[in-house]
Design goal:
Elements (H helix, E strand, L loop, with lengths): L4 E5 L4 H12 L3 E8 L6 H13 L3 E6 L37 H16 L3 E3 L15 H14 L1 H5 L5 E3 L7 H10 L24 H12 L14
Parallel strand pairs: 1-2, 1-4, 2-3, 4-5
């Protein structure tokens, strides 16, 4: 019997990799979707490819969407990435690393591919606990996009099986996410999370994403398997 198809947004980071592993463990045939959107941390695209191969995804599409044409974020323009904030300082305020409408853009591509594939399931690794305060990672945003998808798709209009946007990590801490991935055999040494890596692709160890990642591994009592150039403890 053919497995149900799922489009999984895969950035190559901890959250999206864990989400892809969960989709596979849930019995879905995974179709991975990665974006080269002009981000300064383009090493994540290479890591996403490695992760996709390790997880045995059915297909993996990398789409170029140059959001540097708009800028407005430290990830897509020449704005400094915040460093050395304490984990407690990473809260509800929206930081300069927020890329305007990024998840809306990504989900729209995922929705289009899902319709073509005849898939009724999209997986997204957003998280509303240990995250950087991005507005498009909140449960209410996902619920609103889900309602829009019900109106905007053939299945929604013709009464077919509705699309479901799965967010299995949305209410987990980073520690819980990593713990779940380890139980599924995820190799986190393949993943990458840094917002401002060195030219050689070494994680900075001081941006919000690195700090949250390191916190998650520390809470599990294990070392993060990737290298860092600036970890102060």
């Amino acid at each position: 019997m053919d497995r149900a198809k799922a489009v999984v947004l895969l950035s190559g980071g901890v959250d999206s990799t864990t989400t892809a592993a969960i989709a596979g463990a849930d019995g879905f045939e995974v179709y991975a979707l990665t974006f080269e959107y002009g981000q300064r941390h383009r090493i994540e695209i290479e890591r996403a490819r490695l992760v996709g191969r390790r997880l045995g995804v059915r297909d993996h599409v990398v789409i170029a969407v140059d959001l540097r044409a708009f800028g407005g974020s430290a990830l897509t323009s020449d704005i400094a990435v915040p460093k050395h904030r304490s984990v407690d300082e990473i809260g509800p305020n929206i930081p300069v690393t927020y890329v305007p409408a990024r998840n809306t853009i990504f989900l729209s591509f995922a929705l289009a591919w899902a319709e073509v594939l005849g898939s009724h399931d999209i997986f997204l690794g957003v998280n509303a606990l240990d995250y950087s305060g991005y507005p498009d990672c909140r449960p209410e945003y996902i619920e609103a996009y889900q309602r829009m998808a019900d109106l905007a798709t053939r299945a929604g209009v013709e009464g077919g099986r509705p699309l479901t946007i799965h967010t299995p990590l949305i209410r987990l801490t980073k520690a819980e996410i990593i713990r779940r991935g380890l139980t599924l055999g995820v190799d986190y040494g393949l993943t990458f999370s840094c917002y401002d890596p060195s030219p050689a692709g070494v994680a900075c160890g001081a941006c919000d994403s690195c700090l949250l990642r390191l916190k998650g591994f520390s809470a599990n009592g294990i070392a993060d398997p990737i290298a860092y150039r600036d970890v102060t403890g």
